[in-house]
């Protein structure tokens, strides 16, 4: 018969059965760069710890603990970058001995009287998942192409970790939109101006200079349809609307458009001075069908209709411009704050875009919806 001290028996049965919860004397939250990580990803997190009254705690170093199916592991001793504010990152290497398809907890702890006190904690999922979220971004150095002064395209395909997609390729088609002026006695312009296929650089942006040879002796507007594919044939499309003029003339008149909150702003300037102009504004679907049209006067501010693919403004002085909504940055930012046993969610959405969201607790779906505005829960 063997007799064990009571403390030793408690340690045998208490390991990993209960995880210490954040103390009620603190208000805290922890956010990660993303909810799901795979082997050799870098886990990045920020944490904030306040007193129950919302004041900053005194600056002190805390232990960073990683806890999962194999028990807790101390990662480092972390000092705040300011009182109560902590930031750290670490790589999920083989040396950590992690199991795939498991949830892991990151805890910031303080040792008080030989007891572990958890000040804040958060969790992430560890899987060898396959990336499904692809982005394809295209920008140009200018909007008008002149002979000897070509437009340069910059293209980049990224996954949800903002890493370049290594096997991306692009199909490019340049199409005539309409002709503004013919400069020669006989000028022939094809509807399809140019096609090209190319591989994207696996590092950084891929640069493409449009050749002068694809254009005729005329002034015209044209579109670039860019279709990106990867080895799994996942596809993303980007459209650019640009101009070409075979005779460069100093531009003194200009139409400017801006995306301000949930509205589009148009104004007309001549030699840098704003002037009133009248014309017609056409709201177009992605298919090219006109959804609506109205007579307008510049300067103009109108609410954005997100059913539209683009807006085409044609002034009575003959000038025009097309504004594609997908050329603007969405600027949607989720915010989460944990207070004791409550999680407060909000979304910064200045343009009032419709968005879809799902909130999880572990594998359980708590909320899912499509909204244009967000009321904190």
Task: Explain what the structure shows.
This protein is mainly beta and 377 residues long. It folds into 4 domains: 121 residues, Sandwich (Immunoglobulin-like); 119 residues, Sandwich (Immunoglobulin-like); 78 residues, Immunoglobulins (Immunoglobulin-like); 39 residues, no CATH class. The strands form 8 sheets. The chain has a 5-stranded mixed β-sheet with strand order 2-8-7-4-5, with no helix packed on it. A 5-stranded mixed β-sheet has the order 10-16-15-12-13, with no helix packed on it. β23 and β24 form a beta hairpin. It starts with 5 loop residues before the first helix and ends in a 6-residue tail after the last strand. The N terminus is likely disordered.
Structural class: mainly beta
Indicate the CATH topology of the largest domain. Answer: Immunoglobulin-like
> Would you identify the regions where 5 or more consecutive residues have pLDDT less than 50?
1-23
Mean pLDDT: 82
What is the share of helical residues? under 10%
